[in-house]
Amino acid sequence: MEQNPDPKQKTRLLERLKADMADLPPALSGAAKYIIDNPGDFGLDPIRVSAQKAGVSTNSLVRLASHLGFEGFEGLRGPFRASLTTEREGGLGLAWLDRLEQHEATERHGRIARNEVNIVARSLRLMTPERTAKICRTLTSARRCYITATRASYALAYYFHYVGRMALPGLDLVPRHMGTAVDEMMDIGPYDCLVAMTFAPYSAETLQALHFAQSRGAQLVLITDSEVITPGLTPDHLLQVADNALHPFGGYAGAMAVLDCLLTHLVDAGGDAAQDRIRQYEALREDTGAYWRGGKLPKLPK
To answer: Is the pLDDT at 2 greater than 50, yes or no?
Structure first.
């Protein structure tokens, strides 16, 4: 298993423990139940304390870790500990940035990090609950939702489509291949919507797609860095994000944070159907060996 757990690893481990409990030996089953019931404490406590609270031996926790594919107890505890750190980050303040900026050797790094924090904070502040709710209603009620972007911001559109299609099966990324977005939007109409992302200098292709969709009566959701980007374009919904990075190009940290929040709202709105599709996607990836679960990696051809 990975030594640096991803944000969803804790959730997957809890689901695995619930599924495996009935087939585990009694001691391991007891340890699994303790972790399921007390994930926070398990993330904080050392092995002897966890064993005592669970009423099992430390060896049982080590064996459970091995059963789940970890080399030892710390590997199993890692995802739960990382989850606690993430959940409590907001209460830790920004004193760490102050300390970085007070020393010449780290001052530049501190300024860069603070700028990124400010980009994300401003972007999320502009993403008001009222605006977000209206966008979610537009996306979930549309016959089909197209999403488009070009060049560097295409990566944002790809990510939004990759995750969002589990909540919105009608979400369609354009262009997919060598054509233009307009080529793949010939059937767009008043019952559809277009989500577009563009940041200065604005992509001519993305603007063409927006104007075309507007001419067909589709709802427009625009994620950009300004309230006005071209004459004659009047999006139905605008999510303005900050992108004032300290390098020569636009920074996408704010846009990424906004997209992640929007995706969370869409998954919530999708209810049980969205959760079922997510489980189906994950099961398919597991069945096809999409993720490495330990052991030797396949050899690459020479």
So the answer is: no
